[in-house]
User: Which sequence fits this backbone?
């Protein structure tokens, strides 16, 4: 196990209790979009890379009752939260294993699993190609892999909100400078092909909210503010932004949230591949 697996690591959203709660709500908000085309019906031993607080783990176990999920994460803090969350759900009992590990150096022998799931994790990895190579190593022939990732250039908000956009650029710059990749969704096809996967397919999924769904639009903008503010302290400390920009962003998001003609748009990419 590498040294990266021994404790918490730089993570743009942090590890606060509020952030852990946000991750659970995020999983539920995006469940329908994420799982609309995911099929693990023929799998029994699934590896979830970057399981975090277990929010996606719970959904996987609910949707696919034949699965046993092994969740790995580098953060002991997140894994402890995952254990608390999953232990509260009776039907998850005895169907999951949580293990602290570095995704670039998985502590499992070859062909240990017949499926893998990665969601919002490669964006935080300094070497996503190494991670995908390791995942392929521990999968058996015929295993299905689903990878979902961000494409942060797609974010659009109306009315025009300059503080939000300045902050968003600082957010992406900080993540990139810290070794992550906020645009990795567009690169999944190339990464999977280079990693030796076959039957690679990608789908662009969109969140487009306007006057047709005013309630969900308001909910999403409020949630988006939480996502952005989770990194505020890090960005200020790194000199990427300042308090007036953060306060300006909050004011603009409040105005957009209450604007009767607001538009929110964001796209992400989901890839599906197989192991031979």
Assistant:
């Amino acid at each position: 196990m590498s040294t990266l697996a021994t404790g918490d690591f730089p993570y743009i959203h942090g590890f606060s209790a509020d952030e852990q709660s946000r991750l659970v709500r995020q999983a539920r908000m995006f469940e329908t979009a994420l799982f609309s085309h995911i099929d693990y019906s023929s799998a029994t031993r699934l590896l979830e890379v970057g399981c975090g607080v277990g929010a996606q783990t719970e959904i996987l176990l609910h949707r696919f009752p034949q699965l046993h999920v092994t969740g790995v994460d580098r953060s002991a803090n997140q894994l402890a939260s995952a254990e608390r969350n999953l232990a509260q759900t009776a039907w998850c009992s005895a169907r999951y294993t949580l293990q602290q590990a570095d995704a670039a150096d998985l502590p499992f022998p070859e062909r240990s699993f017949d499926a893998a799931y990665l969601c919002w994790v490669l964006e935080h990895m300094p070497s996503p190609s190494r991670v995908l190579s390791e995942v392929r190593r521990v999968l058996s022939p015929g295993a299905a892999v689903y990878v979902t990732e961000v494409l942060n250039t797609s974010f659009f908000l109306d009315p025009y909100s300059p503080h939000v956009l300045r902050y968003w650029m600082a957010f992406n710059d900080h993540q990139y400078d810290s070794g992550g990749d906020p645009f990795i969704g567009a690169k999944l096809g190339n990464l999977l092909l280079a990693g030796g996967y076959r039957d690679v397919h990608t789908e662009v999924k969109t969140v487009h909210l306007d006057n047709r769904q005013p309630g969900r639009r308001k909910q999403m903008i409020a949630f988006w503010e939480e996502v952005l503010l989770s990194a505020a302290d890090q960005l200020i400390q790194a000199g990427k932004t300042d308090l007036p920009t953060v306060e300006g962003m909050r004011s603009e998001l409040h105005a957009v949230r209450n604007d009767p003609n607001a538009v929110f748009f964001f796209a992400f990419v989901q890839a599906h591949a197989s192991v031979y």
The first strand starts at residue 45 and ends at 49. Confidence is low (pLDDT under 50) at residues 1-9. The CA atoms of residues 45 and 111 lie 10 Å apart.
